[in-house]
Specification:
Layout: H1 2-14, E1 34-38, E2 47-52, E3 59-64, E4 71-76, E5 81-86, E6 95-102, E7 109-115, E8 126-132, E9 148-149, E10 154-159, E11 167-172, E12 179-183, E13 191-195, E14 205-206, E15 208-212, E16 225-228, E17 234-238, E18 243-247, E19 264-266, E20 274-279, E21 285-290, E22 296-301
């Protein structure tokens, strides 16, 4: 309440004189949040990553935060489980986010799984696992106790150029396959790092530091999830409180120009502890989940 009151006072003191014309506020990019379902699989207790399936329209993937094994969970927009898979050849130290994107084999969809959490900022390397996306045909009976198994995963080892960082947002470009990591910091702006393919097994990649992004929040850069739109022209980020979006300027062909744009906030509704966000496959809406069992699945539709 004090924060709200303090903010209200600041706005009052900063208000222009009545005779000065004011521009209308920029409309929010998304409409009001709607809870469309809850995640029914009791094995999903900390939905930390989220990605729309590229093979099965209307299906989504999620992963638990640290403490779970190397599992991915598929579900539909009713919150019903579509199957659980163990990722072959992967370890789960602190999985935080995920994406579905192209990979080395043309025409094939891949899951990118970000083992990027580092609360103590002590890891010399982080890992992004890349594995062909499993088909969701007759998989509803696959559970965590009796999961399916993916094809062997490829471990993409990444290093920061300036020491260890904690991060919870993994983004992968839908065309180039470039990997982006957005760090998680308190009362400061987060930093964006980039890794460009091709990625070679057992050869760690030192990422490029692209710079900071300005988050319009009193709490700074506590970024907990991220996603790039299917057309590659928008970036969505979230923290515990709301969502944010950056848009590539019209005519720009350099995706990295997007990190220089003004971030616009929008409401993501009541989440228990919001840590995941993903564009719908058609790019016209965003979905978000949170930690806790029976997490609400929240959808916001683009205005």
């Amino acid at each position: 309440m004090r924060l709200c009151a303090f903010a209200g006072i600041c706005l009052y003191l900063a208000a222009p004189a009545a005779h000065v014309s004011q521009k209308a506020p920029k409309p929010a990019p998304y409409g009001p949040p709607a809870t469309i379902a809850t995640l029914k699989d009791k094995s999903v207790s900390e939905s930390s990553g989220l990605a729309a399936s590229r093979l099965t329209p209307g299906a989504y993937w999620t992963n638990n935060d640290s403490g779970d094994g190397p599992f991915v969970y598929a579900f539909d927009t009713r919150g019903d489980s579509l199957g659980v898979f163990r990722v072959a050849g992967a370890q789960a130290r602190d999985w935080e986010d995920m994406a579905t994107r192209p990979g080395p084999e043309r025409g094939k969809s891949y899951l990118y799984l970000g083992d990027i959490g580092d609360n103590n900022e002590a890891r010399a390397e982080i890992v992004v696992y890349r594995v062909p996306e499993p088909a969701l045909t007759d998989t509803r009976k696959l559970t965590k106790a009796h999961p399916g198994t993916t094809e062997p995963a490829e471990a993409i080892r990444l290093r920061y150029p300036d020491g260890a960082h904690d991060a919870e947002a993994l983004l992968v470009h839908p065309v180039s396959g470039h990997i982006y990591i957005v760090t998680k910091v308190v009362i400061a702006n987060p930093t964006v790092y980039e890794a460009a393919p091709p990625f070679t097994a057992n050869n760690p990649v030192t990422m490029t530091r692209l710079g900071v992004v300005n988050v319009p929040s009193l709490f700074g850069g506590v970024i907990t999830g991220g996603s790039i739109s299917p057309d590659g022209r928008r970036v969505a980020l979230c923290d515990y409180f709301q969502g944010y979006e950056l848009t590539l300027p019209a005519g720009s062909t350099n995706f990295n120009d997007i990190w220089k744009q003004k971030m616009v906030g929008f409401d993501l509704g009541k989440r228990k502890q919001g840590e995941a966000i993903a564009y719908r496959l058609d790019g016209k809406a965003l979905l978000a989940t949170s930690e806790g069992k029976n997490s609400p699945i929240i959808q916001v539709t683009r205005n």
